[in-house]
Write a structure and sequence with these properties.
Layout: H1 12-22, E1 26-28, H2 29-34, H3 39-47, E2 52-55, E3 58-60, H4 68-79, E4 84-85, H5 87-93, E5 110-115, E6 129-134, H6 152-162, H7 166-178, H8 184-190, H9 200-211, H10 217-227, E7 236-243, E8 246-254, E9 259-264, H11 274-288, E10 291-296, H12 297-302, H13 304-316, H14 334-341
Parallel strand pairs: 5-6, 9-10
Antiparallel strand pairs: 1-3, 2-3, 4-5, 7-8, 8-9
Length: 350
């Protein structure tokens, strides 16, 4: 609940200072009147340029630009008790967002969740606010004079369910877990209580992958579309290795064959990191005798069968039996490898 002192409060000046301090100098009309600030005084301050009318019934008690946190307060004061910061905005608060806790989200929007019965017309004067309405929304209790945020695990579920692509959904999931803000067990335990979850089955599989060390969308594509779809061996994920320049973690390490696969997605490995990646591969080869194959997002996402065929040949060259190798379809290039491995007397060889 938003903090509104009783009008008969014995210490209105103390209460006013408390409100302004915790709310980053933002105040609502209801709060102002509760501490004895008349409407005429507010209009006078606004007309003189000392205060700003930010939204209907919401004021900044200073001139100049609002901080990001002050903007968040302005939105909550405008929308009232039923609103809570959610989705991308809550992710920044819980430290697994993409911008930073004290900075705007990448799209500059403020995301809030409200009950499904709320009237969308109330929000027309908030062009930078994205309102998510939920029929089962009951809100969350908050401490007095603190911004209301959707809790951590429900925020992860919200982002996974609303993401535009499965890669984006997995990105939110992996960031929340790899930054030690939550765990697969905590998310899995909260899933049954979420009545409407379009990606429920997918999320259960994704949580298993993260538990196995698959942390990024490209790694999941490699595990599902290259390894599992073609019967390739399962890698040891994020394997710790010692190198001349310190510890490193290999994305995928095939221990019996002393072969590693590193994955470069532009979202996670910018072009300026390529020199560093090449040096890392060289140091790994020197220190541990591990050969590294490197694949990018375009190859794995668009042509997984081609990468499976190449990688299968690399494994076979290192004495992999290829007993489980299989093409994923009639036109899969892995078929050429399996055909070449069959003895000439095999009746299936034409």
């Amino acid at each position: 609940m938003l903090y509104v002192p009783k009008p008969d409060n014995a210490w209105p000046e103390v209460e006013k200072r408390k409100i302004l301090h915790f709310q980053k100098q933002m105040i609502s009309m209801a709060q102002a009147q509760a501490v004895g600030i008349p409407r005429g005084y507010i209009r006078w301050q606004v007309n003189r340029g000392h205060w700003q009318a930010v939204h209907h019934g919401v004021y900044a008690t200073f001139s100049g630009e609002l901080t990001w946190e002050a903007r968040l307060w302005a939105v909550i004061l405008r929308l009232g008790d039923d609103a809570a910061l959610s989705h991308e905005t809550a992710a920044e608060f819980w430290d697994f967002g993409r911008a930073g806790r004290d900075r705007p989200t990448l799209d500059g929007k403020v995301h809030v969740t409200m009950p499904g019965k709320s009237n969308p017309a109330r929000h027309l004067d908030l062009p930078y606010v994205v309102v998510h309405r939920r029929a089962d929304w009951t809100g969350y209790r908050q401490e007095l004079l603190s911004l209301p945020y959707v809790p951590l695990v429900p925020t992860v579920l919200d982002l996974v369910d609303s993401a535009g692509t499965l890669d984006d959904a997995f990105g939110w999931l992996s960031r929340a877990i790899t930054r030690n803000t939550t765990t697969p067990a905590m998310i899995g335990a909260a899933l049954p209580a979420r009545k409407k979850m379009a990606r429920r089955a997918w999320l259960k599989d994704a949580l298993t992958d993260v538990s196995d060390g698959v942390y990024f969308p490209l790694e999941r594509r490699w595990a599902h579309d290259v390894e599992r779809a073609h019967g390739l061996p399962r890698a040891s994920r994020q394997s710790r290795r010692d190198g001349a320049d310190g510890l490193r973690y290999l994305d995928n390490f095939y221990v019996p064959y002393n072969l590693a696969v590193e994955l470069d997605g532009l979202a996670f490995h910018p072009p300026e990191d390529l020199d560093r990646d090449r040096r890392r591969d060289n140091e790994t080869k020197i220190a541990a005798g591990v050969d590294t194959l490197r694949y990018g997002f375009k190859e794995v996402a668009n042509r997984p069968c081609e990468q499976a065929e190449q990688f299968a040949r690399a494994l076979i060259a290192r004495d992999w039996s290829a007993d489980t190798l299989k093409p994923c379809g009639p036109d899969c290039p892995v078929r050429t490898v399996t055909m070449a491995l069959r003895p000439a007397t095999d009746p299936q060889v034409s």
